[in-house]
Amino acid sequence: MKQPLSTPKLALQGATVLTPTGWLNAATVLVEDGKFVAVDQTAKPSGYVAIDVTGLHLLPGIVDIHGDAFERMICPRPGVNLPLDMALVENDLALLGAGITTFFYSITDSFEPGLRSREMARQLINQISAPDHGLRVDSRIHIRHEQANTADYDELCHWLDTRKVTLLSLNNHLPPAIDEETLQRYTKGLRQRLKLSEAEILALVQAACLRQEEGLAQFEDLVQRCHQLGIPVASHDDETAADVAKSRERGVAIAEFPASIPLAEASRAYGAAVLMGAPNLVRGGSHVGYMSVAEAAQAQVLDCLCSDYHYPSLFHAPFLLAEQGLMPFEQAWKCVSEYPAKAAKIGDRKGKIAPGYDADFLLLTPNDPLPSAIRAVYINGLPVKQSL
User: What was the pLDDT predicted at 41?
Assistant: First the structure.
């Protein structure tokens, strides 16, 4: 995110601050050069601009490592696309409105035409990576690569090599068989994005199935490349013990949406962070029949939450976890800040209110679980949204 050459030295005084070790009352938070330099209860030193935030809560900004709601801003109806620059600005406003200060655009790199095509991925990456993109949220790229998309493989490798992509998940959404019932279920999802005939969809799926073996070989190469580059790899929708075993073999860092508690336990046993969608908690369960976030939290196998397909749910989820007695609020907020930052390998600078960390934070009206509680959003020490 492009920033001014210098940022003001700020002293935020009087808020109740959520630090890595718990709440600190009537604190003074010092910010300089876009980073936290002190969090304590001492008086403001000279040279800092004082901001009275008495009565508010000051929390780390939300780190969302898996969100694709931007797709609906690009394509609000099947086959109807809006200008990309307009869609991304709208998305940026929606992120700020939900308290999300670091966002990984989860771009699907699929064999499909249209919204989830390589061409769309290319356009999005070019737009978001441009120095003058105009986005205020710290915007990063997470590629959800489909196994059957084997074309232009060198281009995908180049995105990794140049760090345009800093998170990669391995996806395979093809149906296991092309019988009529399975194809109908698959077609239902496609029709939310594409306008294709039954014959065109069948031809698309049949051609993709023929590329599965080549795609699998590319998967293994991608995993090794990411390990060499220090880029975290995520599995997606592990449904069986064999899926988890393969993820372990690959050294996967993040298990996205494992289907059951035993699979989540097995993923955590080899060191993967379990990531689940906040809408699952807000709705009261998974929309595809997997385990619920509430069950995962109760079983203590939940590490991180993401927006998945609905940004406001990610802000609301920590309050809901605490309200339902599933975990203390202080830990629940780490599930949307500190823990996802660590899983995405940016935990040395994001997700905490602590000296040396990026000054990304929210000022909230206390005890209000809806995004309307957000009074201000700061990113790198600059106010990007405020209603104080």
Answer: 86
Structural contact between residues 147 and 212, judged by C-beta atoms closer than 8 angstroms: yes
pLDDT score at 1: 40
Tell me what pLDDT residue 55 has.
96
Q: How far apart are CA 125 and CA 309, in angstroms?
A: 19
User: Structurally, what CATH architecture does the domain formed by 10-59+354-386 represent?
Assistant: Roll (2.30)
CA nearest to 127, candidates 91, 88, 161, 166? 88
Token digits of residue 364: 């909230």
10 backbone φψ class: left, alpha, beta (φ>0; ψ -120 to 50)? beta
pTM of the model: 0.94
Q: What is the fold, at CATH topology level, of the domain defined by 62-344?
A: TIM Barrel (3.20.20)
Q: What are the start and end residues of each CATH 2.30.40.10 domain in the chain?
A: 10-59+354-386
More confident call, 337 vs 290: 337
Pairing of strands 233-236, 167-171: parallel
Q: Which of 111-125, 193-207, 363-377 has the lowest mean pLDDT?
A: 193-207
